[in-house]
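Hello K.,

You asked for the raw outputs rather than the summary table, so here they are, unedited. I folded two proteins back to back in the same session to keep the settings identical. This is the first:
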Amino acid sequence: MKKNWFKQLGPGLLFAGAAIGVSHLVQSTRAGADFGFGLLWAVLLVNIFKYPFFQYGPRYATATGESLIDGYKKLGKGVLIIYYILTFATMFTIQAAVTIVTAGLAITLFGITESITNWSILITIISFSILIIGKYKLLDNLIKVIIVVLTLSTIIAVGVALFNTTKTYDFQQVFPKGTLEIGFLIAFLGWMPAPLDISAWHSLWAIEKRKNNDDKFDTKQAIFDFNIGYMSTIFLAICFLALGALVMFNSGSEFSNKPGVFAQQIISLYTENLGSQFSIFVAIAAFTTMFSTTLTTLDASPRAMAKTTELLFKKTSKKYYFIWIILLAIGTIIILSFFTSNMIQMVKIATILSFLTAPFYAIANFILITSKHTPKEWHPSMAMKILSYLGIIFLVGFSIWYLLNL
């Protein structure tokens, strides 16, 4: 097993692929550009407090042989219906937000056409084809290559930025004030490192991994796999925040709301500071970041909705995944055909919605993992329970605080 440890990895890297996207490239970079290293506390705190609820996905799936979505039904049909409504309400906005950023980067990296809509359609078709033709196995193998390329290119970009900088930076932590800054903080926390509904996606990927791996993917391996993916998301979040702080902080530049212009700004600001010879590393890091997110979210939401549909209507069909992925692809293209003018606003809406729905997933996952539906041996430790309680207080408290400051 030691020799094949990388081959054994899967759902954890898919988690990383879905997580390391808008939250990192857009939000973390903007946090560094606007606040320097002042929001480092937010990155660390939200990752610590969200950790248990993400981990409960693969823990529950491999301990019971069923997904969190099956577990939600056991908590009551009402819980499953709430999950169904929340997923349906957010899936199109999330997919549109990640696709539009990917398309903006594709224009900068590949050219060919300046049309953000055409690139969005092309990226959606490519992602759709990969998932329909290759299914989970291709996604599992492809994401490993993407994560390695992403990590190496990001480390190179940060290393060069650190080497080239002549400024001294203040690590004093700041707390945003005013409606706009508070709105950004909540949006930042919403997708850092990812929306909490990814825990349900992760449980589905874990089940799929076991089908393709002769049951060698047990609970202990699943938690190790998740920890590898989770640590990589934290590391790369700090990298992107550092890039924003080292390259853009106090530069006097403002980000455009237009996807193509935004992508060009990121690449050109890095190029100006790092040197044109390193722009390819930044471009590759940025594009692989967003393409991995676009690909994994296009797989995950339909997979989750297909499972929920089966449970609600008590009818199993392989067609459900195909129907939902077509609906998501078409819905995303429709949204992007009419709302491509303001990327930042679209991202902000998607991320804030994710943060406000996070308490539901946190509470549901915690109740499920500590209930009779999970084998006693895989119940969380006392330390994890305490961290879970603190995490729920954190998520509920920040949501109430944001709503009071609207």
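The second followed immediately with the same parameters:
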Amino acid sequence: MNTTNDYDSPWKEAIDVYFPEFMEFFFPEAYEDIDWSRDFESLDKELQQVVRDASLGKRLADKLVKVWLKTGEETIVFIHIEIQGEYDSLFQHRMFVYHYRIYDRYYQPNTKIVSLAILGDDRPSWKPQEYQYFLWDCQLNFKFPTRKLLDYQTQLDTLEEEKNPFAIIITAHLRAKQTINNPTEKLNYKFSLVRRLYEQGYSKNDILQLFRLIDWILVLPVELAQSFDQQLNNYEEEKRMPYITSIERHGIEKGIEQGIEQGMLNKARESVIEVLEVKFNSIPNDLKQTINNLDNLEVLKQLMRQAVVISSLTEFEELLP
């Protein structure tokens, strides 16, 4: 997938927009237990405060969502979702660490914490679902459900007929992997997927949203991207459905670029703060706020290097623009 950072990925955006559909597609039993008549609440900022460890592995996205169950009594469930993009020998450990940190922060007698994982790596046999250790009579066994995207390879024809947005997204993900060395075939699959958005009767807003995600995942070389644009323009003229105009396409591309840039800035700010916290145990909130307000990537990179060798916070503050 065309992902340059952990948090600004098409997967994260897709879950933000289509969270009920995500649960229905991957975890239908849980979907049936959730009371969707009540508003669910995204807690991404709170999650990042709980799990700030950049060293705990690379993922495509992580989410924390608060939902209510259909049971008669008041029951709140915090759903922790990890989208893992590559093999990671420490993945089970990270799932456990994140789970108990969320548990420690949010647990009340009427709450439950559930961790779910989606695996988008290239290893068919890697399906971690458990973290455990024991010594003498002390034992811990933490299990979590996973869904492997490669397992959907045999269902591609069926997926392309489904209307759930995640059927489209998984298809784009798998086609991107299949055509990594064949851009012409990627062009054909991309146009086929986008055409199905129109054929399956999605609304204009959904077509624009899903097109943006497909465009992000199935990236074409410049010359083939132009060919794709022409095919799409011809198709829209034929169907008299001018949804993705050149202006909208330009806006989508700018949005992707801005999302990538913003994600890089966020990671750089987090890295500077993390180094300072490790070195000096803690740092004042106003200094954190100052760092979080910086929007120059080169300045943040320089501050990162200085944070490693600086001898005091006062000396560091003197370097701030």
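Residues 154-244 form one domain.

Happy to rerun anything if the numbers look odd on your end.

Regards,
P.
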